[in-house]
Amino acid sequence: MRAVNLLAGAALALTSVWAVAQEGPESLLPKMFDEPAPAPSRTAAPRPQAPRTQAPRPQASSSAPAAAAASGAPRPAATSTPVVQAVPTGTPGAMPTEIAQDDGTLRRIPTLEELERMSPEDFEALLGAKVVIDMPPAARRSADEAGMLGADEGGLPMASLAGQNGSLIRVALQGNRGQLVSRWGHILLRRALASRLNPPAGMSAADFMAMRVGLLLRMGETDAARVVLQDLDIADYTPAFGQVAFDVYARNADFTGMCPVMATQGSLRDDAAWNTSRTICEAFRGNSTAAISKLERDRVRGKMDQIDLLLAQKYAGAAGKARRAVTIEWDKVTTMTPWRYGLAIGTGLEPPAALMAQAGPSYDYATALAPMVGLARRAAAADRAAATGVLSNAAMVDLYSQIFADADVTGEWQDRAESLRDAYTLQDPAARLAAMQTLWNAKGSALYARQVLTAAAAARMAPSADMAEAAPSLIASMLAAGYDANALRWSSVVEAGSRAWGMLILAAPGRVATVGSSTLNTYVDNDDSTQKRRSAFLAAGLAGLERVDRADAERVVRDAGMGMGGSTRWTQAIDHAASRGDEASVALLAAFGMQGDNWQRMTPRHLYHIVAALRSVGLDAEARMIAAEAVARV
Length: 634
Known about the structure:
single chain; mainly alpha; 3 domains; 32 helices
């Protein structure tokens, strides 16, 4: 047993990484820009050393406590179960006789150089069998409660779906393409999918988790998908879960993250991409020469496309000493895949702009979240990610703070960073507003993304009648990041029935006086949107929040050429879930009803039922923000 522990310590020494913190330049940004965390200590941890004493025979039962005491680890109780399988006495395979004897015992501990040359098969032969980890029951996690957020951490109640029809939840998860018209709807859906939830009736815990992680990936939430995935023990993976796990690590450009799965559940799949990923893991386990040779043989045999296996060779070449030059040519590549993009950015490559232009928005989300990508490329992708809900106001400000501090980033990105800093630091309120208006010089979703970027700066603006014309943009910016209390300070400045008033009357928390017909008519008269869609959304949102007479709301919607009444299977399902107080079902069904690439895909009927259902189950803040967003973005 001590021999196995010593081998493990020696293997750990081979893979240890020594990190030295670097001091960064002094920040010139205001305090609202996030400050970096304190630098870690420069004191390096001592390298574990393998004792040179001869290993005892396997039957010595006291070896495990002795090894634990020597390493400084807590001494296990006498009745605890060993976590590593003992070395058997069978023939240790083809290991040299100077290391192992015929009876399976070790003559001596292998040196670090000998361990480095061993393949995984040689190491397992040395032990006589695969290492088996016996996880104590207390360390195992229930698949029925897998997730990232508990109810006490902002997640939804765990038993929300316990009484729900599993078929309905399956449709809500699998039928959602991941693209929502509402930023706040996206945020709510991410929160629901990341919550620790019991599966609905008739659905296995593994299938429920796989569908949640799959939807997070379609939403572009690669980081959240990985965190949720890793809350499920690998031993609980099903064959259907293999594809989901593979996609998670490919989209995160973290192919070594698959290695624990390959080591314990390598038989979940048997296809070219899966086996290539297994070979990459072999390279990072110390057998890089053989792994790269195998990848080259697979390329010659046409196991995958040339570009896929060349990228895999380049990625695997980062491990060990078997480095080789790999030339990547994109001329004949016509489509981008998560596998190709993950390997490319993981090795510091930048695919051609023309190829990325037709790849779809999900790659922008991945780029915006990828720390290994350059700041300029991340900034170019950040607008789409922020408007969707993938990036928060704080994340956007942090990104542009890094751009401002990096002298190598020039051009429009540095200009935007300087404008953002001016929006925070200039003394004159008019000058700060002018800096924000410079950033708002965009249209569509890009404009909304810039309003997300300036939300905290807008929240610092004191209400002023001199800025009444800019009030709609300032209020929309504040509400984009949830600064409703700051936005409501402008109530004394804006006029009833104006565009700014419409956002405030929807965003206000608590009880609000019912909006009269005359004020609603004034808003309709001032509405310059196409076919009065903004007025229709205002009426539907107010009706869902019970802040206007239902008859007045239906009249405004009808005059805009649309309807708010009627019943469909979706309206019946979300209303029924709301009547039972089922927060999770309401969130999933609301997201299902908000699918689309812009607010033109939303109808007043859907908005009314979504807002009403969310308010009914206690998600009042989300209901208000979604209603206000509808008015702000039309």
